[in-house]
Amino acid sequence: MKTKNSKSAAPFAYEGLDRVIHERARLSVLTSLITHPAGLSFVELKKLCALTDGNLARHLQVLEGDGMIRATKEEDAGRAQTTVRVTASGRKRYLEYLTILEQIVRDAASVAHEHDESQLLRKLSPLST
Predict the structure, then answer these.
(1) Three-state SS for 98?
(2) CA spacing 20 to 30 A to 52: which of 1, 4, 96, 106?
(3) Which residue in 11, 27, 37 sits closest to 98, CA to CA?
(4) Is 121 helix (H, G, I), strand (E, B) or coil?
């Protein structure tokens, strides 16, 4: 997270953005898992995130290597099935990441609002006529 000094020196640096999560496919995987606390099968994740087998496998490898998810293989009617769950630390990091994204939205909205207000004031100003 940012300190007061880093916030004032570089208010839009957003050092708290987690590069592991920030990648689109991994963000999709984590969001899917956060919304399904009991976990999801590899096939379900693949469909929810619109990823190929190889692409999903690679992103799961990165997330598991970073301790954000846990994948387990189980036998089900003679077929191996991989179930993926978010870890407690993965959930915590994801929620911290969302906090940073919320700040980005607030910052952008306030700048947009200020811009809209200044545009309106210029239009209403007697000097502009």
Answers:
(1) helix
(2) 96
(3) 27
(4) helix
Distances (CA, A) of 106 to 6, 66, 99, 122: 18, 29, 11, 24
As a CATH number, domain 17-124 is 1.10.10.10
Report the predicted TM-score, pTM, of the whole model to 2 decimal places. 0.76
Q: What is the pLDDT of residues 75-101, one digit of tens each?
A: 878 888 999 999 999 999 999 999 999
Report the distance separating Cα 24 and Cα 61, nearest Å: 15
> How many whole angstroms from its chain centre is CA 90?
11
Nearest to 41 by CA among 78, 95, 79: 79
Q: Which amino acid is at 111?
A: V
**Do residues 56 and 49 make contact, with C-beta atoms less than 8 angstroms apart?**
yes
